[in-house]
Fold this sequence. Notes:
Layout: E1 12-17, E2 26-33, E3 37-41, E4 44-45, E5 48-49, E6 57-61, E7 66-75, E8 81-85, E9 102-108, H1 115-128, E10 133-137, H2 145-149, H3 157-162, E11 173-174, E12 180-182, H4 187-191, H5 196-206, H6 209-212, E13 215-222, H7 229-233, E14 237-242, H8 246-262, E15 268-275, H9 278-295, E16 300-307, H10 310-317, H11 322-325, H12 330-342, H13 357-365
Parallel strand pairs: 9-13, 9-14, 10-12, 10-13, 14-15, 15-16
Antiparallel strand pairs: 1-2, 1-6, 2-3, 3-8, 4-5, 6-7, 7-8, 11-12
Amino acid sequence: MAKKHLFFPGQKILLKPHSQLYKGTYEVTVHEITRNSLRVTMPYDNGRIVLLAVGTEVEIKGANTVFQSKIVDKEHSENSTLTIAIPECVRESQHQNNTGPKIIAVTSGKGGVGKTNFVINVAIALAKKGLRTFIIDADLGTANVDVLLNIHPKYTLQDLVEGTKDNILDIIVEGPEGIQIVPGSSGFQSLADLSENELSNVIKKFEPLQEYADVIIIDTGAGLSRNVIKFVLAADEVIVITTTEPHAITDAYAIIKVLDDKDSTLNTKLIVNRVDSKNEAVKIIKRMESVVERFLNIKVTGLGYIFEDPNIRKAVKNYTPFIKYSPHSLAAKCITGLADKINPLNKQTDNMSNKSFLAKLKKIFS
Ligand SMILES: Nc1ncnc2c1ncn2[C@@H]1O[C@H](COP(=O)(O)OP(=O)(O)OP(=O)(O)O)[C@@H](O)[C@H]1O
Ligand SMILES: [Mg+2]
C-alpha cells in the first residue's frame, strides 16, 4: 500500500481561525510544503480577503488530519499566502514507510528495572535518526514518563476514553527531540470497563497515529496488568527488561511464561540492565534463552544490555534523559546501539509483523 501523503500542492484544505473577527471555516489551497510548514493561499470570504495576523491560532483540516497550529508568516504579493507551522506530531516521515508504525512494547516482571528510562532514551535516539517516535505511557506506577521528564500533561488517555477529547493530537505532549507522548494515567484502568461500542470508538481515535508515527513504544509498567496485556499482544516486538538480580531474572522468566501462554509466536527480546560487564549480560541472556527453549514454546532472543551507570540516577534527579545529560556515558552508548537494533529502517532488524496498523489496533481493543 502506498503511503498517503498528508498534504500535496494544489490540495484544498480547511482553515478555521481562532479569531474574534473571523469565525468561519475557509477553504484554502496548499502551495508548498516543507518539513515544518505549509504555505497556503490567503482565505477569502464572499470575495473579500480574510486578513489574519501572524500569530493567529488556526485549526487545519486535511483529508487525513486535523491539527491546531498557528500562522507564522504571511506574504502579500500577486499570490498572497499564509505560512502555517506543522507541529512535530503531524510531520511526514522522511523515510519510505509503507508498513505503518512499528509497535514495540516494553515490559518486565519486577518493577524498577529501568523500563521507563529505556523507553524515553531509546525514543530520543530513534527521533535523532529522523524517525517520528511516539511513546504510549501505559505505566500506571508513579515514576512514569511525564514524571521523569517533568512535564504536566493537561489531558490523558482518560480524556479520549471518556470523550472529553476526540483528537489524539490534542492529548499528545511533546518531549525532548520532538518525541511525542500519549499520557496514559488512569485511562488504562477504565479501558477494561468499556463496552464493545465504546472500545471501537477509542480505536478510531488511535487511527491517526498510522499517518503520524514511524515507531510507537509502549511503556507497560511491570507485571502486565490486565489493561495493558493487549497492547503487548499487538506489538511487533516485545522487549522484556531485567536487571542482573536473581529475583528480577526469575520475574522476567515468569512474564515470558505469561506471554507464552497468551501467544507463543510473539517476537520477544531480552535486555539486561545495570550490568557490570558484557560477560555478565551474555551469561544471563544465554541462560534465559536456553531455559525458555527447554520449557516454553515461545522464543526469546537477547537484544543487548545497558551498563550500570551512576549518570542515570543524576540524570533522573535533573529530569533530563541520560542520553542528553551525559551523551558520552556508557549507558548512552548502549542505548544508541539498542536503538539501531530496533530501528525499523535497519535491514538487520527483525521483520515486522505483516498485520496492518488497523488490525493491530483492533487486536488491542477487541
Ligand atoms: N543502567 C542503570 N544504571 C544505574 N541506575 C539505573 C540504571 N537503570 C535504571 N537505574 C535506576 O533505576 C531507577 C528506576 O528506573 P525506571 O523508573 O526506568 O524503572 P521502571 O522499570 O520504569 O520502574 P517501574 O516498574 O516502577 O515503572 C532509575 O531512576 C535509576 O535510578
Ligand atoms: Mg516505569
